[in-house]
Automatic annotation (TrEMBL):
Source organism of the structure: Desulfosporosinus lacus DSM 15449
Limits of the Radical SAM core domain: 5-86
GO molecular function, one term: metal ion binding
Protein name listed in UniProt: 4Fe-4S single cluster domain-containing protein
Entry keyword set: Iron, Iron-sulfur, Metal-binding, S-adenosyl-L-methionine
UniProt entry tagged with the keyword Cytoplasm: no
Pfam families for the chain: Radical_SAM (PF04055)
Amino acid sequence: MQIYIVPTYECNLSCPGCYSKKNKTDFSDYLSWVNFIKIYNKFKDECNKFAFIGGEPAKWKFINEAVLFLKNKGKKVTIFTNGTIPIYTKPTNVIVNGTNLFNLNIRNTILEQIKAYRNQRVKIALRFNVNDSFSNEMLKEAVAISKEYANSVSVSIMFPAEFTKSLGDLVYSLCNQVTLTGTKVRISRATPLCIFSSEQKSYLQTNCRLSGQCSLPNNSIVILPDGETIQPCVELNIYKNLKELTSSSPRNLFFDEIKNIKSKENSACSGCELFITKQCCGGCLSYK
């Protein structure tokens, strides 16, 4: 089981396409230390991996203490971060929003943090969020930065998006060029397969874990800052109470809602063989 904890939806940046902004009003508080310990105690026996997401988790005043606590318990800790605020207690992995490196005002700050993590032997993944405004110059920079600093790269289409061949060419070019540097690449979201040629699709499925189907429902959950509300992923706002897990696994708890969403056909998918044969669900479920 993978646990994703949102200790806060607060952030020091305002990135385009941020999925967290819509939750900030309803969940404005920070996770308390007491609730963090309750979460740990509930999942300590069945979960070896804990991840902190946001907002910006480095803004949580207990982030360093929480990382150290979990590591001392033998757990693996991943931080999803914009890279501008240091974390001092050496998480197992950091996933840095690589798209922020194109912002010259914060680029050097992020690179200094990445270098510090690398010196501590923290595994570094760069996450690139792409859309039609992702230029060739940005692509070249992403490849060069990934080669120099990243253990792995995550590529994600920013939704909502126009499903065009040009977008498919962009995703393919980025993944292909980063892969050729020897860096592992993963396409992290369900991605419409229709934007790729058959050759591109085959390459990406073989080398970059391309999938047209969302992996939900699965046995991972997101726990929100109140320490009680859970949802199946960071973008799909189906809320349940943590107490409901006493009688059901995450997979079963969200099964009916997700099955219903997956069955909905986007107008762009009408008659598509990939959708009919359940190879593709038309992209991120939260935009259906």
